[in-house]
Amino acid sequence: MRKLLKWLDKYLLEIGIIFLSVFIPLYPKFPLIDLPQTWVYIRLEDFLVALVVLAWLILLVRKRVSLSTPLTLPILSYWLAGALSLVFAVVFLRTQIPHFFPGLAALHFFRRVEYMILFFIAFSVVKDLAVVRRYLFFVILTFIGVCLYGFGQKFLGLPAFLTMNEEFAKGLPLYLPPTARMTSTFAGHYDLAAYLVLMISFLGSLIFGFKNWLAKVFILGVTFAGFILLLFTASRVSFAVYLLSVTLMLVLQKKKWLIIPFIIVSIYLANFVTGSSERFAKTFRVRQVVYDSKTGLPIATVEDFFISPTPTPPLVVARKVAPPPPVSGPPPAEENLPLGSGFIDLGDLTREEALAQIIKRPIITSSLQTASVSSQIATESGEFLIKRTIVYDISFTTRIQGEWPRALEAFRRNYFLGSGFSSISLATDNDYLRALGETGLLGFLAFGSVLVAFALLIRQGLRKIPPSLSHSVLIGTTAGLLGLLLNAVLIDVFEASKVAYVFWLLLGVTVGVAKLALPKDRPLWKEAVEIAQMPLTAMVGLGIVAFLVLGSSISNYFTGDDFTWLRWAVTSRFSDIGQFFVSAGGFFYRPLAKIYFLLANPLFELRPQGYHLVSFLLHFGTAIGAYLLTLLLTKKKLVACLAGLLFLIHPINAESIFWVSCTSQLFASLFYLWGFIGWVAWRKINWRGRPLFFFLALLAFVLSLLSHEKAVTFPLIILFYDVIFYHSRVVMNWAKRVAPYLPFWVLLTAYFWIRTLVSHAHGLSGDYSYSFKNLIFNLVGNFTGYLGEAVFSFNFIPLYDLSRDFLRSQKLVAVIILIVVVLLAKKFSKYLKIREWWQGQNFKLAVFCLGWFMIALLPFLGLGNIAERYLHTALVGFVLALALGINRIWEKLKTKNLILGACLTIIVVAGVTGFYWREMAKAKNDWRLAGETANKILLAMATNYEEFPASTSLYFVNLPLRQNRAWIFPVGLKDGLWFIYRDDSLKIYQLSDVEEALDLAEGKPSARVFPFENGGLKEASR
Question: Taking the complete model, does pTM exceed 0.90, yes or no?
Fold first, then answer.
């Protein structure tokens, strides 16, 4: 008896794990116990898992096994987060969530625990590599069984047992026709595809782990069979994920030369599998789609439009959604994916072709006069245009329009804890949104910490374990995990029971293998610190912050000058591109910006999201540039991160980011900054040798000049940098000193000649022009204003405006104040011993930052007023100085009191970033409201007025100019209305007095007066 107990102590868990790894994938999902309020059942594997868990718990109590693993703390934290979310949902949200059942929510939570506890059991089993080899043998045997059953469904008519709807989940055998999507022993083709991606990546890695060539060929054949079965599932997302995960596996195995042949062969074979290639072809289909000729927005496909047209409000995208596929009955002979409601215009009609295809339909409208209610009116505007358009299928639009919004709604109920398990629906088709919706940020981050801890362990293992079977196991699981993570974007893969069981078992074995090979591994937190210091990690972190702070602005509407740029793009042709460089056409000289809008218009049309996304990416790219530049100059990673963060969230950048009209400035800033990075890299790395970075700087300078005139200061910036850092180190003759700058000055001279004498570009006027008699006052006043905005954000603007208005009429007072400020600054600089405080290289950097700020603003300091958008490039110097100043505080304080220095530094950083974050949130909200107001105004006109007689005069009174600092309609109203009426003869006027407008309209039968009152546009008359 004692021998039996000893044998069981040694082998019972191993037998249980191997049995589960074979039984769970191969045994169909026959139901045992029905759960109310759902068609999910308790099944036989649940009881088998419970028995293995019971055995493990007994051994745990007897201290034969341990809970100590590298992933223990993250997993327990996820369970705790899930329990808190469950309790919160049951106690506080149960009455607010429709179809929420506490018992069902608890079962969902315990199901997650059931999946993940297998990790601890599998980890406990791995005592030596012999156990691992036995486990791998049965895993390969199980995979063969899954493949054989799948081929049996395809060619021999073996039944499938699905859980896709309530009837199928009862365990009824379904006989799939040859053209159907194979499921093998799994409950659906998506589950099978996810399992295959996981195992193909894992087994593919084992090919390089075995030394025996017979074993290599055998595993290769098994893996190839799995690939063919993957094609039989016709899962588009899983096929793409398979390519990426196997590519990662080959990279980690240092077999990069196999990547291109592997991809070519995989795509080639996919073309020969019926059902797979056809389904990919149905992802995006070209159809004839009806567009509203006034708004430019899609309504429906031609067949749906003429059979059952759906009314569409102008200027609001309203799409005809295809009915969902049936959820009961036998599966169809071949899946026919319905068209979805997402449209991508091909933009392939000429003006003449468009006019020829315009069709007429009856009008359904209302005479309501206020914009506040007109947005709810359904109308067909009368003229429609048929265009060839790419339409993507229902599987995408179901997620975008149904499942994902439900998950986000659940997340918004409680950002921290979510709405509890089972609070969304049975499927979300995005595991990340599901985690946020059900367990909030706490659960999402806790689950993520499990994966992060595993990644840190694998990083440590791959660096220390030589090529071997253990090395291949680590790589295979890592590549398979990538496949699951990518699949999770469109599939609830971690909730699919068969996949989840297999994954957590495999993860436990893999971590056990890593611990065997790394008995004296260093703590994972050291790995985390090392990774956190990598530039790529900092860039990813900045990207996350950018999405959190600025991401929602992508849905903003257009404002003001945006319509001028859009109209210009619509009325231009690709053949005009050459003229952009030699003729400004009475506009600014910005050829690159014009080319961008010309190319973007066919893709984005009147959909603002695309334009805002480009602005978001350009600003983010500039923030990355600020980070890299600071890293180059200081070699201090934390200082670089802080500078990049401050630039990213600084509220003064709001106008540049949220106003589409500022795209040209964003392009210029991006090229300006990256060009300067190229110059610094050339100077620091190989300035005597290869000129690659030099030519990159030169190219970036040209692109920046073609984007916006502020780039004219670039030659001064590089000269100033060299004077500060290199004038005493560069030993060369006069010609070699001057030669590097000559190309930049020659290009700048050519730019001024073309801009002024050839293109006749639009000049400066009004407040935004130079006044030589006030030049000194403007230079000082504008520099003060820009510096105040950089430090105090929008809070400084009222003080600046008040001071400027007063000093404009009191020049003598302004001179006295200027002299006093200079004397005080000199006095305080001596008193504070600024040069001593900064010391050496820090002092040079401080001078350079101040010089950058001033030089980048030189084109605008002499103007009669200031504008936030002109600060975008100059702000790089300010945030670099601010980050250096905070770092200097830390360096000074830590030598006296480390704890006090750390606390004060954290308080300063938190205070500065918190202030800018809050101000940016306000600015973002202002621009959102500005876009909504602009949309209301245009929507009211489009809804209530189908057309106007030729040469009609339209008087708009008291149109809002700004929403705080966000522009609404400073200009651009005429161009916005042009997109509705396409009538060049309309005369548009903006006035501030209703009586004056009525007087001007009197005697003109077709004239109309529209005052803006109480947030809406109305028509006024006598």
Answer: no
